[in-house]
Each structure stands twice: as structure tokens, then as C-alpha cells.
Model the fold of this input.
Amino acid sequence: MVAAGPPESGWPAAREQGPSAGRKSRRNDPVRRCGTASWSKPLSVLLALPGRIGRPSLDKAVSRGEGDNKVENDPTEALRRRAAQVMPGGVSSNIRLVEGPEAILVRRAEGARVWDEAGREYLDYVAGYGAMLFGYAPPALNATLASTLAEGTQFSSTHRREIELAEMLVAAMPSLERVRFHSTGTEAVQTAFRLARGFTGRPTIVKFRQHYHGWLIPGDAALPAGEATTDDFAENGPPIVTLPWNDGEAAQRFLRRNADWIAGVITEPLMANLGGHDPAKGYLQALRALTEALGIVFVLDEVITGFRLGLGGAQGYYGIRPDLTTFGKALGGGMPIGAVGGRADIMDLIADGRVNHSGTFNGNSLSMAAGRWTLETLRRAGACFYESLFERSRALMDGLARAAEAAGIAVALRGPGPVFWLVFEADEAARAALPAGAPPPAEPPLYRRFRLGMQAEGIRLTPGGRWYVMDAHSNADIALTLDRAAAVLRSLSS
Ligand code: PMP
Done:
């Protein structure tokens, strides 16, 4: 399950550890922690003592009960009003609108915790929407960023940190022969589309229903949609066609009939953006073989899964070799990053401008240093890092399933662990019963009640049902989460 690490050669020695490296606690350092059997009380011990968990890990934990978490002179409302005056919706990204008027305004973050503008502390599973694999503000990463900052951030030239990160990526996954950097996953996906079109000379990209590949995809609000309603589509068909996922026969039929038009197929390895469904056994492999046979570029979108499921990515985890891969999020340890990589014969179309690829901030030194630190830390921690992350994630998923069962609420827990979904079956049934074409609510209503209940208990979740586990989540944090989830689930069922 855990991908093998890359060979020693090609990996620069960790030399940007900074002055605080020696003072790091074991808890904050995955490399040192992995040398020990365990770095907090075993989960089995904590879970066996639910009544004695107490509340110690939330220093200024909010107290139980609606409206009980009020703080005097709370600036949150005033800040929300100011934000709404000058930023549409009061946010910088529309996903944040889904949190609604109860959205937390985070002031600072450290480890597995965030603190809001009123000083309330939350144990956090938002994890920068997957960007924070280790946790917030790891001291060793901060030291690396500080020393990089001192040397300047924006050279607009090829530079050493960028070359080293590219070498590390190429060493990490056999499918990567060349890489180029961006500042976001959205850009990396758009570059992959251009490369697929340039390489094949064909116009159309096939994506899958309810997969997300950034916010510039036709079919999203305010861009023309392209849904394949039959097995064929008209000449000069839409630039993006959407097929059902996990349906090997539908893909076979459509791709075989329309191969002459199809430049690329892009898929998330699992449904990390909606519902958490795993790929059916053999499905990704079949898609890979089919696209290869038809001369279609196969793009794996690892913006979420890259370095969350293993150093070898989801492609190592599921055992497939895409033509192109897109990365973002966790690669940058919280710094803005995107990357696209893959076969040299495809990637080299951008070497001489046959396909354009540009960007002022591409390869900026802070993002590159953060990427180097991320991959170097994962390599040094070895398999233990992912074994431990998966173990804690599975314990959290199993515990949530048990807590829901005890409360008499039907739920599904889906996903590999470090990213997973908690789905209320009542919400899924309500969604399925919607009349055709009716938009689903921004957030499933029962999950919303659960999430706000958890927030009142000092646990911050993403809207909708997706959870990200960070290395900073200790066994005690997971036990605490389960204790509070049990109470919230009971309150939902009463
Ligand atoms: N692809 C996937 C699978 C994603 O989940 C996301 C973001 N959630 C993107 C692409 C776009 O990345 P970004 O938000 O960095 O542009």
C-alpha cells in the first residue's frame, strides 16, 4: 500500500533546516517521530477510556451548547461586515461561501489547531483543503522558508531549488520524466489540457461527473456546459465532455466511437471532491489501457492525492502509470504551488513553444523550497510516515462509523483515510430524490447540522463531508474528535 521511496541519488541533502531544527519537539517532526514506536498514547488505550478523555487538548475549548461559545468583544461580526463591503460575498474563493454566516475567521494556525479572531481554539480537519499534510506551521518548514526569504523570492530565472524539486519529483514517480511548475492546481490542469490537445491534434477533453479539476472548466457556472447525452457527439463537439465515473462500459463505448476527437481523459484517482468513492477494481487500469490503445492522453489529477496517499502518489497506491499528472496542494506545504509532469515526448511540446506555458510566479523560490522540504521530509521519514497517517485515519473513520451506529444514524465512510468522506445516508437519499436538473443544496442539510454542532464543540470541519487528516493529528486528538462526534451525533438523533 505504501509506495516505495525514490532512490537516494537525485535527492538533495536536507540543508535548509535552520536554527530551530535541533530544538524541534518529536511531536512536530515526522522524521524524528518515525524513529520511535509511537509518539502519543496508543489509540486503543485512549478509545478504551472514553469517559476519561476530558478536554485537555483544547486549551480554551469552547463549552458545550448552542450559543455558549460567545466571547466578550468578539470582533468576528464586524470583520465579516467589513469583508462583505469590499469582497463579493466577503470571501476570496467561493467554496468558502458554503460555510455560510457561521464561517470561522481564522487568525492563526499551528499543528492541528486554528484559533479564530475571538481567540477560540479549534481542532481542525480542513487542513488548508488538503494543502497541510504535516500540520500548520511546522517549525522546520518555517525555518526553511525564513532562510529562503532572506535570499529573495522572485528571481524570474531558473534556479537551484526549482531544479532540485523537479529532480525529486522525477525520482518519486516512474511516470514523471519532465515537470513544469505553476502556482495553483487549476493552472496545472489547464496546461495538461493544452498538452493533450497539442500532442494529439484533437479538440476534446473527457472528464467525469462530479470530479473537480479547478475552477476554469467549462460546465462550471457561467461557462458553457458539455454533457455527453448520447454515445456520439456532433462534429466540433464541446471542448469538455462529461461521462459517468466508475462505469467501464460507458467509457469504452464513448471513447471507442469518438476517439478521433478526443485529446485527453482526465480523472481523479478516487472521488476526493465528492462522496469519496474508490475506483472500482481494475477501473483505472482499464481506462489506462483503453486510452493507450486509442492514442488518447491519460491525465491523472493528483492535486489532492499527490503525497497524501504516498510518496509515489495515488498512481503508486493504485498501481497505474498515467501519461500526465497534475499536482498542487500538499506538494507546497501551504505555499501556493501547482505542477504538471509526465512523458517527455508530451511535455517537451512546451520546450520550444509548440504549446505555451507561462506564469510570472511559476517556480518562485518560496514555493520551491516548501516543495523540496515536503518531499525531503517524506523521504527521510520513510514508510512509517504513511503507515502511521493511514492508521490514525482509519481509526478516525472506524470510530465515526461506530459513533453514528450507536446514535442510530445511517452513514457511509468512504475513502482511503488521509482524505475521506463522512456521508449521511439521509442526505444522499434526499439528493437522489431531487427532480432532474434541480440543483442540490450547497451543503447537505444533515451534514451541515453535524458540522455546526462539531464547530460548537471546537472541531472545525470542511463543509460538505470531506475530512483531511494531518500528521499533526495525534491519537489523543482523534480520541477527542470521536468523543465530541458521538455527542453531536446523539444530539442529531434525539
Ligand atoms: N484538481 C483537484 C482534484 C482539486 O481538488 C483541486 C482543488 N480542490 C484542483 C484541481 C484545483 O486546484 P487549485 O485550487 O489549487 O487551483
